[in-house]
Amino acid sequence: MPPTALAASTPETAAPPLVGLRGVSKRYANGTLAVQGLDLEIGAGSFVSLLGPSGCGKSTVLRMIAGLTPPSAGRIDWPRGTPRLGFVFQEPTLMPWQRALDNVALPLKLARMARAERHARARRMLELVGLADFAGSYPRELSGGMRMRVSIARALVTEPELLLLDEPFAALDEITRFRLNNDLLRLWGERRFTAVFVTHSVFESVYLSQRVAVMAAHPGRLHAELPVEAPGARDEAFRTSPDYAALCRTVSTALEGAMAA
Amino acid sequence: MREGARILGLPLAAWPRILAPLLMATLLLGGWEIAVRHLGLPPYVLPGPVAIGGALAADLPTLASALAVTLRVTALALVAAVTTGVGLSLLFSGSRLMEMTFLPLAVMLQVTPIVAIAPLIIIWVDNVQAALLICAWIVAFFPILSNTTAGLNGTDRNLADLFRLYGASRWQTLWQLRLPWAMPFFLAGLRISGGLSLIGAVVAEFVAGAGGTGSGLAYRILEAGYQLQIPRMFAALALISLAGVVIFLALSLVSHLALRRWHESAVGKEH
Ligand SMILES: Nc1ncnc2c1ncn2[C@@H]1O[C@H](COP(=O)(O)OP(=O)(O)OP(=O)(O)O)[C@@H](O)[C@H]1O
Ligand SMILES: [Mg+2]
User: Ligand 1: distance of its center to the CA of A27 in Å?
Assistant: First the structure.
């Protein structure tokens, strides 16, 4: 895809991006080249999906953006300064010895916020994800989907400017996944954070994002960047529309290309 | 849990857990008594439960104070095992070098039979009580050390990343993540160590053979053996087993109370 067309279709790239990855590579200590020469810009307030086959380095890219692992080559630029981060892992990753409320409040507690204040904020976040009545429940008393929502509430409680999500709904059934997709879009609409969403589902990437970055494996690299031009609301009507089907087909073709490359 | 019929305040479903072992014990003791009477065994070969009960009642003051002495060593050894076991595992998990240096020593202490070391310790340490305590501690501390170390080093990687992401200090990570994570491991070790410190105390008492007023149950067993007072020997033995069972149950209860809300091991099977 020529860069001009991309710039025209995605106005988010006109302003300085929130984060820019320039020639980023990652070689792990055991010699695995997980990511090679990745260039990627993520505009403030945008919703970008990283799509690719298993093992193509999606999690690695996300962990490098989060600063959890350093790139072995290249740069990660933050032209607007480093934002507050939220991270949602593939598993809910909750502390089993803490109630939902305290799990959500964890980032605030680590920042040494006073107890009353952090509980009030955590409670608001639980309301936002529809779990107000389960503040006192322990993780093992919640269903898989509810645990994931607690995890999302915890990621949002610091009011992050950049939310990183690593296949957060991969382990859930389709009905729950659709509902959480809608929840996530609603929250994104309300709070206008920037979202980087890792997935290996074409349908999910198209439904959620404004732009899909398709990655190829061995070594992990960028194969294509596709804008998702769907100005209307993302809802169940969109999910069944011919536009959606056409967009999915385009992305699917790009993914097949990436798998063959 | 669904509310069902209750007898004496206990749900119906809980009764078999109490009644089944009681029934088993009754049958066993009854069969034993009948066999002893039927075969006409003299009490110095095998006393029946009734004779043992009689000896227990008759010698209760002596036996009870001997039990108290043994239990005191046991409890002190367990406290020492918890302190040193947890302390060392914190040290090990903080530094690989420390672990490489001291773990072999701990393993050596663990694998050498206590009966073989006890005579040396009793020779080296003047104070008999202190020598007994050291022996019981050697037997008891290893399960706590190895379990707690495993727990401290096994923290979920994603949770550790999460703490890092939110800028947690080492101290916060230790208190709010690694120690709670290690808790079930520690408690499993504690339950094993409770029984082991009793065994260690009794074995050391046997080796020391210390008599006098401050002597423990093992010495009472030896003494009764010399005097051919076999029912009393059995009575002392019964007290030791009973103490072991009580220690195990008490530590299981502690473990259950500590983990009941969050850990699968503390959740009943019917849930
Ligand atoms: N800590 C690590 N040490 C060594 N190699 C690693 C490590 N983490 C990942 N890798 C390797 O890097 C490559 C990319 O892994 P990564 O987890 O980023 O893939 P992914 O795209 O997220 O895959 P999936 O969709 O299955 O989660 C893989 O070949 C993997 O084996
Ligand atoms: Mg991954």
Answer: 10
> Does B180 lie at the interface with A, CB-CB under 8 angstroms?
yes
Using a pLDDT cut of 70, give the percent of chain B over it.
94
Residue A200 Cβ contacting ligand 1 at under 6 Å: yes
Q: Please work out whether the CB of residue A16 comes within 6 Å of at least one atom of ligand 1.
A: no
* Tokens coding B233: 């020997």
Rounded CA-CA distance B247/B252 in Å is 8
Q: Which two tokens stand for residue A225?
A: 């960047």
Cα-trace Rg, chain A: 18
For the stretch B131-134, contacts whose Cβ atoms lie closer than 8 Å and that sit 24 or more positions apart, written own/partner, are: B131/B204, B131/B208, B132/B73, B132/B201, B132/B204, B132/B205, B132/B208, B132/B216, B133/B73, B133/B76, B133/B77, B133/B80
For residue A88, count other CB atoms closer than 10 A to its CB.
26
B25-34 pLDDT tens trace: 999 999 999 9
A62 CA: nearest ligand 1 atom: 18
Does residue B106 sit within a domain?
yes
Q: What are phi and psi of A19, to 5 degrees?
A: -145, 140
Q: Whose CA is nearest to atom 3 of ligand 1?
A: A28
Give the per-residue pLDDT at A49.
95
Residue ranges for chain A with pLDDT beneath 70: 1-14
Q: Would the CB of A182 count as within 6 Å of ligand 1?
A: no
Q: Tell whether B156 lies on the interface with A, counting CB pairs under 8 A.
A: yes
List Cα–Cα distances, B104 to A129, B109, B152, in angstroms.
51, 9, 19
* Per-residue b or e along B17-50, where b marks 16 or more CB atoms closer than 10 Å to that residue's CB: eeeeeeeeeeeeeeebbeebeeeeeebeebbbbe
Q: Which of A65, A95, A164 best probes binding to B when mutated, by most B CB atoms within 10 angstroms? A: A95
Q: What is the CATH number of the domain that holds B259?
A: 1.10.3720.10
Q: What is the CB neighbour count within 10 angstroms for residue A102?
A: 21
Count of structural domains, chain B: 1
Q: Give B112's DSSP letter.
A: S
Residues of chain A neighbouring B156 (CB-CB closer than 8 A): 93
B166 contacts A67? CB cut-off 8 A: no
DSSP letters of B23-57? Answer: HHHHHHHHHHHHHHHHHT--TTT---HHHHHHHHH
Residue B190: which H helix or E strand, with range?
A: helix B179-208
Calculate how far, in angstroms, residue A152's C-alpha sits from the geometric centre of ligand 2.
Answer: 17
What pLDDT, on a 0 to 100 scale, did the predictor assign at position A179? 86
What Å distances lie between residue A148 and A130, A203, A225, CA to CA?
A: 12, 20, 28
Q: Does A237 sit in the ligand 1 pocket, CB within 6 Å?
A: no
The verdict on a CB contact (< 8 Å) between A93 and B162 is yes
